Amino acid sequence: MKNFHVAIIGGGVIGSAIAWELSKYKLNVIVFEMGGDVASATSKANSGVIHSGINSPYGSLKARFCVEGNKMFQSFSEKLGFPVKWVGKYVIAKNKDETKELERLKKVGIKNGVAGLEIIDGFEVKNKEPNVSCLEALWVPTAGITLPYEMTIALAENAVINGVNFSLETRVINLKKENDSFSIETNKGTFRNDLLINAAGVNCRDIVSMIEEPEFNVYPCRGEYLVLDKNYHNLINAMIYPVPPKKQGVLGVHVTPTIEGNLLLGPSAEFIDDLADKRTTKKMMKTLMKEAKVILPNLPDNAVINAYSGIRCKLASLEDGGWADFRVEESKQTPAMINLLGIESPGLTAAPAIAKEVAKMISKHIKLETKNNFKTWKFREKRFQEMTQKEQSKMIEKDERWGRIVCRCEHVTEAEVIEALSNSLGAKTLSSVRYRCRAGMGRCKGGFCTQHIVRIMENQFNMDVNDIKLNSPFSNLFHGRTREVEDD
Amino acid sequence: MINRQVDVAVIGGGPAGLSAAISAKEHGANSVVILDRNSWPGGILPQCIHDGFGVEETGESMTGPEYATKYIEMAKQENVEIMIQTMVLQFDEKQNIIAVNKNGIHTIKAKAIVLAMGCREKTRWHAMIPGDRLSGIFTAGVAQSFINLYNIMPGKNVVILGSGDVGLIMARRLRFEGANVLGVVEILPYASGLPRNVVQCLKDYDIPLFFNHTVTSIAGRERLERVKIAQVDENMVPISETEQELKCDTLLLSLGLIPENELSKNANIEIDEITGGPVVDQNFETNLGGVFACGNCLQVYDTVDMLSLDAKRVGKNAAKYTDDQKQKENGIRLLSGEGVRYVVPQRINEYGKMQLTLRADKPKDVSTLYVLFGAKEILKKRLPWVNPAIMIKIDVDISSKVLESGQSLEVKIK
Ligand SMILES: Cc1cc2nc3c(=O)[nH]c(=O)nc-3n(C[C@H](O)[C@H](O)[C@H](O)COP(=O)(O)OP(=O)(O)OC[C@H]3O[C@@H](n4cnc5c(N)ncnc54)[C@H](O)[C@@H]3O)c2cc1C
Ligand SMILES: Cc1cc2nc3c(=O)[nH]c(=O)nc-3n(C[C@H](O)[C@H](O)[C@H](O)COP(=O)(O)OP(=O)(O)OC[C@H]3O[C@@H](n4cnc5c(N)ncnc54)[C@H](O)[C@@H]3O)c2cc1C
């Protein structure tokens, strides 16, 4: 049995941000993640929006952490090497009733400390966004976009470099508190630690119930998305949001540009029974297209290259309006267990601020001493595709693997795939390659590169074909060999 | 940066590129180079290990690799230079190509360019198939390459969606490798692959073919566990009472091919929305003078034979262009009318005899094909039957008067 000061359950953006924050101190930290990589749940399946803080009521934790988190993104991005773009957003009003809502949002925003909010008329919006028609819009300049999975990976890989242990494919099955420490039972053995952090996302209640009777409920609410081909990125410059629907505590179907130049349509909002039910549905695919066309009539019908969904961890039911605040607190019944409950939107934005808060809570139990060898490492420098021809030539001169294109759609090179597979977390699935270097994320969805990546996994990482997985522990891609290959 | 100049640069070294390059050489081009991103020339053929290639062209039935080898040998004899593992990143209207390989970034200035990039397969999202995102879903071509090139089995219990040729051939191939093929599901009332493949790959092996059916959902936690299929009504909407579940670990998609034209689009080449390939004239020249298109990136051909024959003409035209870089008039349009899905070429700017290739929009019995100039029939031909899976070739003679009128021509099947 190994001993740790702090154990974090969940390698989403929240768990990873906390791990990175704690890696600055002389602590023994471990993160348990049941997926084959970090960011394997909600943290990879959201809108990727760095929210401004106009949507949460004044005084709430959501408002506070969102505004604080938003301000930390630029420096996080520069330090850790994941991208952000401050594209801004328009909340558009189609009629007089909706324009009142814009006024209200603006007021709340100002109170929450959001800068630069401005209500502008439809004519001006048209100048900036020729494909958008509205009566008025609220312009939110501090809203931005990021790649949520790259952010999570960057945080986690940096934490590893600074000594945090990540145990992937490790599911926490049971918890016990014995004297002053926790005993954590997992499929990879039992661990012991002093402080426990429950960052299990939509599974947060399951974790609590392993040790005490939870006094709250989780109401999973699925959000589906459609991803459009890059050919249509010119349709908008900023994010386009409708005025939030009155019920459900969500923001409504919006159109968001992504860092990589695709467009996202979504998310839908549907309360479901099974919190692991991440399917996409025909019905919602149609609804999303219909609703997105209300705000962007020129959307093409057959430009979808992907669909996905994420599950919101809601602490309030549909009947109760769907809105509840984040809960970032130490359990009263089980001291030294810190629970992060109901971390739905804007959880991604809030993550850096939540991590700081959790470190503060931990400091009440353990004295936090800063390490003097703490270092930050950029998750990624420029991609081949982003380089000038001169830079490309230079890289190839140094290492010819930069001259072998593995992914035809995104122009990812063999060198980049190998670097992705050599990550410090030890994640070696097809998805872990995709999310690190984008091979297989383009329009052909891996038609060309999958075979090359599999060859690299076999030849350069000595992986057995039967151990090659899409993402999670039982997502094997293959069924053995047709026949043994002979060496010749 | 590595700079060089050539007469003809061919992008893509599949059968189309090989055949165009050989023919360009035969017709007087001094230097011809093929650029291909794969580790081998031959395009998609090395993974097509079944036979039937070359029958129409030479009367001899070959496997894909044999067919490719024949062309590769000819290319060598003609001193065509083949650069493998070389990906073209872009080209422009001045025929400058930028390509990358392990030696660096290459800038190639060509007098004429032949586009022969082939095609890619449609994915799950073209058919907007909802459900879980899990492993076990492959396009048929990807599965084919894993089995035939890498000896890797994609799965054991397989359902195939779409009756394209690659899917039909894979049904048989998987059966040979001991997999259980539960059936091929096709939304249309007829197969989209060749009739001979339906017989030789499904019927002969008792593999069920579900017409008017589609996959309505995909389910499983991590690896595929089951799919639901249902019959569709005349509007292609699934009829829920007919839904049935098939337990399977693998779903192959054979939903059709998309000509690979990202490079062409970036160079502002006009694309035909129906074929997905460039709009060309009777010489297969695109709207960019000196840039020609052939093979599956022009239009998806039924067989390699017909494709190679057309590509030869393209190579010849490209060689001619290197001598005489004449700017051509826009010419007149050739439109697809009733009963016709598409016709290639889409433009005509020279009078004389030429070949048209076209497809019907649905299967029919005895019909008549017309080429119309206003109300006037330039050509009328009786067809015993038509099938969208089988390309129609016809020769027409376009007079100078028709050309000079500036009016469009229309092709119809009634
Ligand atoms: C549709 C949608 C859109 C959103 N859009 C935005 C947005 O635009 N901007 C924004 O700021 N926020 C957005 N959010 C919110 C944001 O995505 C989440 O708040 C954030 O990702 C939550 O991170 P997490 O780490 O708490 O959860 P997760 O990413 O779900 O991580 C929890 C992890 O715990 C692991 N785990 C669970 N149980 C166990 C166990 N027993 N043992 C081991 N591991 C376990 C899981 O595998 C998972 O990886 C959106 C959310 C949704 C659903
Ligand atoms: C999966 C599959 C299975 C098939 N099976 C059969 C069959 O059984 N029988 C039959 O008759 N026909 C079959 N066909 C069709 C037949 O193979 C094609 O008609 C033929 O291969 C097309 O020839 P092509 O030269 O146009 O394209 P391809 O053979 O696809 O060759 C195109 C080449 O261009 C290269 N290329 C593309 N873009 C670039 C770039 N930017 N830079 C460098 N190189 C590039 C590609 O790597 C490829 O090598 C199949 C097609 C597919 C896709």
Number of continuous helical runs of chain A: 12
Number of strands of chain B: 27
Instruction: Give the N-terminus to C-terminus distance of chain A in angstroms.
Output: 47 Å
Output the CATH homologous superfamily of the largest domain in chain A.
FAD/NAD(P)-binding domain
CATH class designation of the largest domain in chain A: Alpha Beta
Low-confidence stretches of chain A: none
From the 3D structure, determine the CATH topology of the largest domain in chain A.
FAD/NAD(P)-binding domain
Mean pLDDT of chain A, to the nearest integer, reads: 95
- Cα distance spanning the termini of chain B: 56 Å
Please state roughly what percent of the residues of chain B sit in beta strands, choosing from under 5%, 5-15%, 15-25%, 25-35%, 35-45% or over 45%: 25-35%
Q: List bound small molecules.
A: flavin-adenine dinucleotide
Q: What keywords describe this structure?
A:
heterodimer, A: about 500 residues, alpha+beta, FAD/NAD(P)-binding domain, D-Amino Acid Oxidase, Chain A, domain 2, 3 domains, five-stranded antiparallel beta sheet, 22 strands, globular, B: about 425 residues, alpha/beta, Immunoglobulin-like, 9 helices, 27 strands, binds flavin-adenine dinucleotide
Describe the protein in words.
The complex is a heterodimer of chains A (488) and B (414). With 488 residues, chain A is α+β, with helices and mostly antiparallel strands. Chain A has twelve helices and 22 strands. Chain A folds into three domains: 1-83 and 145-216 and 319-380, FAD/NAD(P)-binding domain (3-Layer(bba) Sandwich), CATH 3.50.50.60; 84-144 and 218-314, D-Amino Acid Oxidase, Chain A, domain 2; 384-467, no CATH class. In chain A, strands 1, 2, 9, 10, 11, 12, 19 and 20 form an eight-stranded mixed β-sheet that branches. In chain A, strands 13, 15, 16, 17 and 18 form a five-stranded antiparallel β-sheet that branches. A four-stranded mixed β-sheet of chain A has the order 6-7-5-14. In chain A, strand 15 and strand 16 (263-266) form a beta hairpin. Chain B is an alpha/beta fold and 414 residues long. In chain B, 22% of the residues lie in helices and 34% in strands. Chain B has nine helices and 27 strands. Chain B has helices spanning 15-26, 55-58, 64-77, 140-150, 165-176, 195-202, 262-266, 304-323, 400-405; strands at residues 2-11, 32-35, 51-53, 62-63, 81-83, 87-91, 96-101, 104-115, 119-121, 137-139, 157-161, 180-185, 209-210, 213-219, 226-231, 244-247, 250-253, 257-259, 291-293, 332-336, 340-344, 347-348, 352-360, 367-373, 376-383, 392-398, 409-413. In chain B, the strands form seven sheets. In chain B, strands 1, 2, 5, 6, 7, 8 and 19 form a seven-stranded mixed β-sheet that branches. In chain B, strands 10-17-11-12-13 form a five-stranded parallel β-sheet. Chain B is globular and about 65 Å long. The interface between A and B is large, with 56 and 51 residues.
